[in-house]
Amino acid sequence: MAKLTANIKEQSITLTSTKSSTINLYVRTSSATVKVLSFDGSITSYKSSNPSTSISISLTVGGAYSGSVPKTIKVYGNTRIKYFDCSNNSVTSLSVGSAPEIETLITS
Amino acid sequence: MNNLTGLNVSGLSNLTYLDCSNNLISGINFTNSYNITGLYMQNNRISGNLDLTPFSNLKAVNVSGNNLTGINVTGLNKLETFIASNNLITGVVNFLGVSGVKNVLIQNNLITGMVNFNDMTGIVSFNSSGNIISNLSPIVLWATGRYGIMAVASGMFTF
Fold first, then answer.
1. Looking at CA atoms only, how far is residue B135 from chain A in angstroms?
2. CA distance A1 to chain B (A)
3. What is the percentage of chain A residues whose pLDDT exceeds 70?
4. CATH assignment of B6-119?
5. Which tens digit of pLDDT belongs to each residue from B100-110?
6. Burial class, B144, CB count within 10 angstroms (exposed 0-12 / middle 13-18 / buried 19+)
7. pLDDT tops 60 at residue A30
8. Which of residues 88-107 of A touch B (CB under 8 A)?
9. Can you give the pLDDT at residue A49?
10. Whether A107 and B7 lie within 8 Å, measured CB to CB
């Protein structure tokens, strides 16, 4: 019997923010849920709602990182990231090259 | 508002909507990402001549509030909304093949004229105030007057 292996590579978006308060992101994928999330020590907590294919993420910044210190956040999708909105978060860098199937990008 | 100074969307062939307005962006890498239909780059620091002709599916573009000195939209036959106000665009804007456009806002530039503007018979709103345009044709004025709002030179006319 032939064995078929599907290699689904995770997709990610990385951003750096100097925002000193809550960071809000919105992600939608093609199916399933977004795994979320990898971040540095500046994020003290996060909460999310992920009904099936979309997720709204709220990150709280605290401790020594609460000032205008760059914070790196990675958002992972276990399928294909289709939509990403990181508006109004004092974002200073954004990398979307690891989400090659993204259809909508909002970073105003 | 974000504070991006640059953006790289190269290789994103599925990207159809990009809103990077209200940043500090001086350049964007669009290589092989030309399927965009909605492009919003207003209020950034983009300068020079912007060539939008590779974006053949473009329906709406807003590049207002930048430092552009030129813009090329020829052949974009799906373009419906073209907003390039408050830049430094000089010379003549060529609308060859842009016959489907409905909204043109190009006020507060240094534009001296428009070529092939007569093809834009479906236009609904048009504002070229704050420029030095001298060649608007009666045909366009009639079409605009019948269907929408027009502003020429420093005046605004509503029909």
1. 36
2. 36
3. 45
4. 3.80.10.10
5. 999 999 999 99
6. buried
7. yes
8. 88-97, 99-107
9. 61
10. yes
Mean pLDDT of A63-89: 72
Q: How far apart are CA B68 and CA B45, in angstroms?
A: 8
Q: What is the pLDDT of residue A7?
A: 47
Six-digit token pair at A4? 């078929």
Please name the residues between 17 and 46 in chain A that touch chain B, using a CB distance below 8 Å: 18
Three-state DSSP string of B48-60:
EEEECCCCCCCCE
CB of B11 within 8 Å of any CB in chain A? Answer: yes
Structure token digits, residue A36: 């979320």
pLDDT tens digits, A49-70 = 655 666 666 666 666 555 666 6
Rg (CA), chain A: 15
Give the residue from B2, B30, B40 with the most A CB atoms within 10 Å of its CB, the best one to mutate: B2
Rounded distance between C-alpha atoms, residue B139 and residue B121, angstroms: 8
Query: Can you tell me which residue has the tokens 């997709």?
Result: A11
- Start-to-end CA distance of chain B, whole Å, equals 36
The CA distance from B97 to B99, in Å, is 6
Rounded to a whole number, what is the distance in angstroms from the first to the last CA of chain A? 52
Report the gap between the CA of A42 and the closest CA in chain B (Å): 19
CA distance B16 to chain A (A): 5
Domains of chain B, by residue range, sit at 6-119
Task: Give the one of A93, A105, A107 whose C-beta lies nearest to B15's C-beta.
Answer: A105
